[in-house]
Structures are given as structure tokens and as C-alpha cells.
Specification:
Blueprint: H1 2-13, E1 17-20, H2 27-34, E2 42-45, E3 54-55, H3 58-68, E4 73-76, E5 86-90, E6 94-95, H4 101-109, E7 116-117, E8 121-122, E9 125-130, E10 137-142, E11 145-146, E12 148-150, E13 163-164, H5 169-182, H6 184-190
Parallel strand pairs: 2-4, 2-5
Antiparallel strand pairs: 1-12, 1-13, 3-6, 5-9, 7-12, 8-11, 9-10
Helix pairs in contact: 2-5, 3-5
């Protein structure tokens, strides 16, 4: 019986979903991205040992960095085939969400027909670029939260601007690309290729 209830809740809540997309880059931000002068670098990600209830989202960060198209290769340092040009230390710490009692109960009572907003999904990232042999780094932060609404009747929400059935990873990558290029002078200084003018 317990397994049946779990399946019922999952079906009711997963019927349809509407997710608020990250903001698209403004024309001014697009102009900053167009001025990219970063060379194609190899990035090594440091693994961080954290308690089980802390999520550093390193795998998600790697996927988003790959989507930016800025770097030649990105992986955990121990998995790279060559020495990295820069090392990336991840500072992101997300508290794991273990139970959604309220939304789950509403899903059962409403039989999935009542649109239910879930707690904000955290897609933020915080990390620092540094030389492989150094300790001083260039910190980059992306503050990104997304709202998800589930239920059988949420499909019309997806017609609205900036809403879609799933989280927009491409816009997320665009925003991260902008944050990195905004710090490119500091990053170029790390690798000794700063503008001499």
C-alpha cells in the first residue's frame, strides 16, 4: 500500500510542470559577451569532500561550463588528460531538500488538478579560478533560483513569456558565460595574458 501511495503522488505531481526560465541577457550584457578575449583554456575542477546533506553541485557546474563553449576541456583535475591551465575551486553549498510534505499533501487532496508551486530550485553557482600552484583566485558568482509549478492544469502557464516545461539550461549557460567574461581581465591576469595597454 505504501508503494502505491508513493506512485500515486509522483503521478499526480508529475502530470505537467511549468518552470520559470532564467532571464535572457540584456543587449548590454550581450555586448560584454561579444568582447570575449579569453583563450581556450583547460579547466581542472577540485573535488570537495562535504557531508551528505551538502550539495556542491560540481557535476551540474561542469555541464553548465561546457555549455558556455568558453573552454577547451573541463573536468575534475584527476580525470584530465593534460595539466590544467587553471584550477576551479567550487564554493557552492546547497542544503539538500529531503521532504516536501506540504506540496505532497496538496497534491493528494487536489488530485493533481490544483497547480502547486514548489520551493524555489537553487541553480546558483559560486567558484574561483586560480593558478594550479597558487591560492589567490578570481571569484565568480551566479545567483539563480527558479520557480516550478506542478499539476495537471499548469500547461497554459507555459504559454507565458519566460516559462517552459523544463529548466532552460541554455539561458543558465548564457548567464554564467556573461559572469565569467565580466571577470576576464582578472582571469587573463592569472594566466599572464592581461592587456598591456
Amino acid at each position: 500500500m505504501k508503494q502505491v501511495c508513493v506512485v500515486l503522488v509522483a503521478v499526480l505531481l508529475a502530470g505537467c510542470a511549468a518552470v520559470h526560465r532564467p532571464r535572457a541577457l540584456s543587449p548590454a550584457q550581450q555586448a560584454v559577451v561579444a568582447q570575449n578575449r579569453l583563450p581556450r583554456l583547460v579547466l581542472g575542477i577540485t573535488r570537495t569532500e562535504k557531508p551528505a546533506y551538502i550539495n556542491t553541485a560540481s557535476d551540474e557546474l561542469i555541464n553548465t561550463l561546457v555549455r558556455t563553449g568558453l573552454f577547451e576541456e573541463i573536468n575534475y583535475t584527476s580525470l584530465l588528460d593534460k595539466d590544467p591551465d587553471l584550477v576551479l575551486d567550487v564554493h557552492t553549498e546547497r542544503q539538500a531538500v529531503h521532504c516536501l510534505t506540504g506540496p505532497g499533501l496538496l497534491g493528494i487532496l487536489g488530485l493533481g488538478f490544483i497547480p502547486i508551486p514548489l520551493p524555489d530550485e537553487d541553480h546558483s553557482h559560486s567558484f574561483s579560478f586560480r593558478r594550479p600552484e597558487g591560492s589567490d583566485g578570481v571569484r565568480t558568482d551566479l545567483d539563480q533560483h527558479s520557480t516550478r509549478v506542478v499539476g495537471w492544469l499548469v500547461e497554459p502557464i507555459n504559454i507565458l513569456p519566460n516559462w517552459s516545461r523544463r529548466f532552460d539550461e541554455n539561458r543558465q549557460a548564457d548567464r554564467l558565460k556573461y559572469e565569467i567574461i565580466s571577470r576576464q581581465e582578472d582571469i587573463l591576469r592569472l594566466i599572464g595574458k592581461e592587456d598591456k595597454e
